[in-house]
Amino acid sequence: MLQNEAFEKPPNCWSSETYLVQSSQLLPTIHFLSLIDCSQTLTKVAQTVCQQVIENQLNCDAIQTDTIDRCYTKLSTIPEINLALIIGPIKSALGLHPWLTRLTEFIMIDSYKQMQTTNSYINIVQRYNQIEQRQGR
Question: What is the distance, to the nearest Å, from the Cα of residue 47 to the centroid of all Cα atoms in its chain?
Fold first, then answer.
């Protein structure tokens, strides 16, 4: 299913641990994120907002969640995350972008040993496909 793929480093990459899996077929893009990615992005957002305040482009009282959200979206090169695999004994979303995980489905896996075959990945995608997201009441 995932044949003829090429791993390449994306342009403007903030971390050497972020890679894209791309294929000539219409397959989803996979991002491998590290703990560094999130903190660097949030730091850049804070620097940008502070710079706008210093240059009188933005009033301190006007800074709202939407302001940060727009700035974060502009600076981030990663789209909203649909599925996150958390692998390891610690069940944490630490390192994931908070603005990109609003509708993310998290699947926890105890060990990399459970991910040794192509069928392991197919089973995860099938499990994700069967999940029904409920929003609101």
Answer: 21
Q: Tell me: the pLDDT tens digits for 47-98?
A: 999 999 999 999 989 899 888 888 888 887 777 788 888 888 888 877 777 7
- Under DSSP, the state recorded for 61 is G
CB-based burial of residue 88 (10 Å sphere; 0-12 exposed, 13-18 middle, 19+ buried)? exposed
* The Cα angle at residue 46 between residues 41 and 9, in degrees rounded to 5: 15
Which tokens is 78 given? 């990663």
Q: Do residues 125 and 107 make contact, with C-beta atoms less than 8 angstroms apart?
A: no
Residue in 88, 91, 92 with CA at minimum distance from that of residue 113: 88
| Contact between residue 105 and residue 133 where contact means Cβ atoms under 8 Å apart | yes
Write the DSSP assignment of 14-50 as a string of letters.
S-TT--EEE-SSS---EE---HHHHHHHHHHHHHHHH
